[in-house]
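Our consortium's second objective concerns turning raw sequence data into structural hypotheses that experimental partners can test. To show how far this objective has progressed, the report includes one record in full. It was chosen at random from the queue rather than selected for favorable results. The single chain below, 230 residues long, was entered without modification.
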Amino acid sequence: YTVTRIGGPTRYDTMEMIDTYTGATLGKGLSGGRTAIIATGDNFPDALAAGPLSWASKLPIILTDGAQDSLTPQASATIATDAITHFLVMGGSSAITAAQVSALSAIGTLDKQFSGVDRTDTAQQFDAYLDSSYGFTPASVILATGADYPDALSAGPWGGDPAGIYLTLSSDTLGAYTSDALQALAGHVTNLDIAGGTDAVDDNAQTAAQDALGSTSTTSTNGSNGTVTE
């Protein structure tokens, strides 16, 4: 085997190496121009929620230090190298500062910013955008904990097949924004896929999601117990 390690001294360097990797295919957004998804590298939920679109449309996720007044050098270099002209921004000013959003607008076109009250609201806003703008009409949706990252991270490509990833507020609480989003999908979704076991998304959150969606079948993917279909 030929083994290639893509890794830099920081997460931002690693991001730049991945997004500018020789031979990588870069997709285009609705405008027809090269489009990137901008997310903070300081926390995980916003970048995770963007996983399905990134996989499905081959849009790079560019991480930046969202608390600073300027884009990280690695983010700026990635935008230049990949000739990105359109941006989707994950999160409001607490995730990506207004100064960085202004810098992106000066470089190209800000197609959309998803500014939720919390991580679950940002995720459902993004999923609604996938449905309305990118034609995602999933028969299945994926529910993962918003309290930790591994399950939703692993589910990113799965969610781009297409199915949006919706986050819980905690292991046992669905959260009002996710609940409202799932209710809006009632009658369209026939399968609820849960990433993780009951330590990640417990029975209370699962029941709340099923109630919001109406009658659906549920598949729970549990790392220790295999896959159980109910």
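The partners drew two points from this record. The longest strand covers residues 35-40. The chain has ten helices and nine strands. Both points have been shared with the crystallography group to help prioritize constructs.
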